[in-house]
Design brief:
It holds the Pfam family PPR_2. Helices cover about 70% and strands about 0% of the residues. The protein contains 27 helices and two strands. Strand 1 and strand 2 form a beta hairpin. The protein is globular and about 85 Å long.
Length: about 475
């Protein structure tokens, strides 16, 4: 194909594009270098900006992600001045995980006086946030203020998002305040940062401020407001947000995400009946009922948090009868409910069904819940076998062995308790909690010599039990 391109010259760009795509897939650097030399000699790169972009992207796909010298040489040799190919290059790098190359290309543009527009700035800021390059981002911030791009709400929003993703919320708020013409996008970027940082109060204040600034609230704004109300357990504010959802969102019953947030908000505020009402009315789309698994899982979580385990099991059965495929979270909730109600066989049945019938992989959380189920029922040997036979040793957690050790203490199974403690020490030799559990088991069974030996072991390892304390206000 390369020979055909050399004969045809620049007449068939379709053939060239197919050739470069093939080289990108096969990572054939030698052929790309040969074609690159032909492009330089024949001066083909002047003819099409698309060819310039494709050549750079194909070349860099063949040299790995950290070869900045070759990328600089490539960009210099092509003598690019049009910002459009650069925008495409930066965007491609950012979208395909080559954020270092995206930032390097932006730096090249700046050093070589290539015009930098809002698109290149926003994309590069996104790459800087992905790499947690706070210094680079702050340099870009300085460039934005110096070059006058701060007047662009898109660039301002990208800066807010950059600082928010670095959890520098004071800087994000400062940038938001300085944006001359604010819109919903930049406000939502700040809201997202507050939500990730669990700064619920600041999130609520921002939503109120949006009303004063006469900024439109969209689904994301209302979702962030509901999350903040859940975090603060602010039921009155939550009801206000609910009213806004109903008033502003057309066909709100079809928005699964908002409905699930409403259910969770009422559940965390202790208003189970309100959560049930939302759940019962959710999922109506043009007269048809379609309750997504997310809604069911949210309602299961409400019952689980309030300790109504029988309702968890009943609702899970209703879910199966409606033909909804449960996800891993739904199974975790129902197995936990079986654990608290002592229904060992049913919990084991759900666990096995999860992997057998629904093809879901059991996570550490599922195994921990299963161990808790068996230990609560006194089936310690069975719990021991399950933890010992986990597919991967890394899946065993200290909490699993701690649960088994605690159950052995309650049931008086000292021999199995010592084995569980030994396994726990193999994972975390300095975990003081395991020493305390083992010491409690020895004390309960009058094994004072073993307690003394355990204390000596803790001294040798430089460990000591944390002493609890309390204070009384006078």
């Amino acid at each position: 194909m390369l020979t055909q391109i050399k004969i045809q010259g620049a007449q068939n760009f379709k053939t060239i594009s197919q050739f470069l795509h093939h080289c990108s897939q096969t990572k054939n650097l030698r052929i790309v270098q040969e074609f690159y030399a032909h492009v330089i000699r024949a001066e083909l790169f002047f003819i099409s900006p698309n060819l310039q972009t494709d050549l750079v992207l194909t070349y860099t796909s063949c040299i790995g992600k950290n070869n900045h010298k070759i990328l600089t040489h490539l960009l210099k040799s092509l003598n690019l001045r049009n910002p459009l190919p650069f925008n495409s290059i930066v965007s491609h790098f950012s979208q395909h995980g080559s954020d270092c190359y995206a930032l390097h290309t932006f730096s090249f543009m700046h050093r070589n006086s290539v015009y930098v527009d809002s698109y290149a700035l926003c994309t590069s800021l996104k790459s800087a946030s992905c790499l947690k390059k706070d210094v680079f981002g702050k340099l870009m911030h300085a460039y934005v203020e110096k070059s006058g791009w701060f007047a662009s709400v898109f660039v301002g929003s990208a800066l807010v998002d950059f600082y928010a993703k670095l959890w520098s919320m004071s800087d994000a708020a400062m940038v938001f305040d300085e944006i001359p013409e604010k819109n919903t996008v930049c406000a939502n970027a700040l809201l997202s940062g507050y939500a990730e940082a669990k700064m619920w109060g600041e999130g609520i204040e921002l939503v109120r401020r949006m009303h004063l600034l006469r900024l439109e609230t969209d689904n994301f704004t209302l979702s962030a407001a509901l999350r903040a109300c859940s975090g603060l357990c602010a039921v009155e504010l939550g009801k206000e947000a609910h009213a806004s959802v109903v008033r502003r969102i057309i066909d709100v019953g079809a928005d699964v995400f908002l409905q699930s947030l409403l259910i969770e908000m009422y559940g965390k505020c202790g208003l189970v009946n309100s959560a049930k009402k939302v759940f019962s009315m959710a999922g109506y789309v043009v007269g048809k009922r379609r309750r997504d698994v997310v809604l069911w899982t949210s309602m299961l979580g409400v019952y689980g948090r309030t300790g109504d385990y029988s309702e968890v099991i009943r609702l899970f059965r209703d879910m199966l009868m409606e033909g909804i495929r449960p996800d891993g979270v739904a199974f975790l909730t129902v197995i936990s409910a079986c654990s608290h109600t002592g229904q060992v066989d049913l919990g084991m049945e759900y666990f096995e069904s999860m992997t057998r019938d629904y093809g879901l992989n059991a996570s550490r959380e599922h195994y921990s819940c299963l161990v808790d189920l068996l230990c609560r029922a006194g089936e310690l040997e069975r719990a021991w076998r399950i933890v010992s036979e986990l597919p991967h040793t890394a899946d065993c957690t200290i909490s699993m062995w701690g649960t088994l050790l605690s159950a052995c203490n309650e049931c008086g199974n000292v021999s199995l308790g010592k084995l569980a403690a030994q396994k726990a020490f193999e994972l975390e030799p300095t975990n003081v909690g395991i020493y305390v559990l083992l010491s409690n088991m020895y004390a309960r069974n009058g094994m004072w010599d073993e307690i003394e030996q355990l204390r000596e072991l803790m001294k040798r390892r430089g460990l000591k039990k944390d002493i609890a304390w309390s204070s009384i206000d006078r």
